[in-house]
Amino acid sequence: MSNRPDRNIGLELVRVTESAALAAAPWMGRNRKNEADKAAVDAMRLMLNTIEMDGVIVIGEGEKDKAPMLFNGERIGNYDSGREVPKCDLAVDPIDGTRPLALGLPNALAVVGLAERGSMFFPGPIVYMDKLAVGSDAAGVIDLNAPVADNLHAIARAKGKSVTELVVVVLDRPRHEQLIAEIRATGSRLKLISDGDVAPSIAACLPDTGVDVVMGAGGAPEAVVTAAALKCLHGEIQARLYPRDEKEKQLAESLGYDTNHVFNCAELVKSNNVYFAATGITGGELLRGVQYFSGGATTESLAMRSQSGTMRRIQAVHRSEKLAQILHDQRERMAERDKQS
In degrees rounded to 5, what are phi and psi of residue 70? Predict the structure, then answer.
C-alpha cells in the first residue's frame, strides 16, 4: 500500500463498522443471532465495496457456526475504478459478540482490520487459539509457555502494580477451569465474560478501562483481528493453535500447521502498515453502543493506524432519512456494477 499520508483507509473503514453496527443494533436482545449477523454482514459488504481497494477476506467470521458471513477468500472493494488501488488483506467480524447482542449484553462490536496483501495469518481448520494479550506497558514481558503466575507477576511489575491489583479477563468456559484456579491462586482479580475477547484485548491497551490482561482460549479469527488492533496500539498478543480434539490436531498438522508454535503480533499480521476500525453495537468498557433518538442514532467508534500510531475516537450522529437514502443509492450502484460484470 502507498505510504502517502493523504489517504487513511482507517477512516473509510469507520463507515464500514458504523454501517454494520447500525444494521445490527435493532436486533439487540431479540435472541435472533442469524438475522443480526445477516444484517451486519450485508451492511459491511455493501460499504466495503465502496472503498477503492482490491481486498481479499482472509478472516471471515461466521464460518465456524455456519452463520451468514463475509467468506474467506471473497474479493471485495471498488477495484474496477480504472485507477491503481491498494491490494489488501482484511480480517472482518461484523458482530464480535453475537450472543451478547442477542441477549442484550455489553461489548458487542463491529470490527475490521486491514493490512497489505499476504500479511495476515490464516488459521485454517483450527477454530480456537490460546491467547495472552496485554497493552504496551507489559509488551515484551509475557510468555505464553510460562506458568500463569509467572506471567501475572511479570505483568504486574511492568505496570508498577501489585499482582492483586491486576484485572484478568477470561472467557467463562469449562475449558478454563484450571486457568481460572491458577489466576485466583495469585490473588489477581478476575473478570469472566460470556463472549467476545476482541474488546477486552483492546481495552487492555487503553487507560482507565479496568482491564490489564486477557488470557485463555478463544476464537482463532479473533486472534488475527486482535493482532491488527494491537499492532496499532503497540500492545502484544501471543497465540497458539488450540485443537479441540486429536482429530482436529491431526488435520491441522497434515496441512502443515505447527500446533505447538506460539505466534506473536508480527506473525499474525506481518505488515507494519495496519488499519483497524471498531464501532460499538452494545455499550461496554471500550465503546458506547448504538443509541437512538427521534430521527436517528449515534455511534462511537475507534479508528487506528499502525504506521502513524494514531488512534481516533469518533462520535457520529446519523440521520435515519439521509442514511436510508445513502444506503439505497449504494445498493443501486453495486447492483449496476454486478450487472455489468
Answer: -85, 115
Q: Looking at the predicted structure, is the pLDDT value of residue 5 above 50?
A: no
| Residues 312, 302: Cα–Cα separation, whole Å | 6
Helices 320-340 and 33-48, packing angle to 10 deg: 70
Q: In the prediction, which pLDDT does 277 show?
A: 97
- pTM for the structure as a whole: 0.89
How many CB atoms sit inside 10 A of residue 86's CB? 19
- Are the C-beta atoms of residues 118 and 43 closer than 8 Å to each other? no
Query: Looking at the predicted structure, is the pLDDT value of residue 63 above 60?
Result: no
What CA–CA distance (Å, rounded) separates 107 from 126? 25
In tens, the pLDDT along 165-194 reads 999 999 999 999 999 999 999 999 999 999
* CA–CA gap between residue 288 and residue 21 (Å, rounded): 11
Long-range contacts made by residues 42-46, C-beta under 8 angstroms, separation at least 24? 42/68, 43/19, 43/94, 43/327, 44/16, 44/17, 44/19, 44/20, 44/70, 44/92, 44/94, 44/110, 44/112, 45/70, 45/76, 46/19, 46/327, 46/330, 46/331, 46/334
Q: Average pLDDT of the chain? A: 90
Q: What is the SS3 assignment for 174?
A: helix
